[in-house]
Description:
The chain is mainly alpha-helical.
Amino acid sequence: MNRKKHWYDYLWIVTPIYLGLGFFNILFAWLGMIFFCLPLLISIFGGGKLYCNRYCDRGQFLSLLGGRLKLSRNRPTPRWMGSPWFRYGFLIFFFIMFFQMLFTTYLVGAGARDLGQFVKLFWTFRLPWHWAYHGTLFAPWVAQFAFGFYSIMLTSTLIGLIVMVLFKPRSWCVFCPMGTMTQAICTLRAGKPPVDEGCPGCRR
């Protein structure tokens, strides 16, 4: 018997819309801060991993492509991907890249560096993205932050797609930085490791 669909079952559409908007106007990348802050706020105020388990648009998007559309090999996710050393190591790396992006934004805001109208894929490859910025009333650092944040969102989505194809559809969820942080918040709130419900399909 099929489960009754709810409005949040269609949040997967947010991922392609967000990436599409950023392709045409980079300032839409700021909307990604919602995905960055909301999971943490839900966990901080007692919601646990509700965002991961129910509202994560990227997780739903990967489930749709890998599960319903059969684009995944559906092989078991390697154990090392779910190990603490890899999850927290990836989280540290993520924060290093995030703060590097913030520092670049600061340099542009201080006038020490020109606005870089490119997207850095996998934190390495610079892709021209000048068509997505048409100049605004905002200061250049606003656009610089958008370019940097979109780079992170696009790169992490591509990593999710790669591991989706190679392993289970939601293998990304096993080591997602947001998932790791919300799990850590749950642990701190409970004073002990909580029961990890996991995300649908990511740990099975």
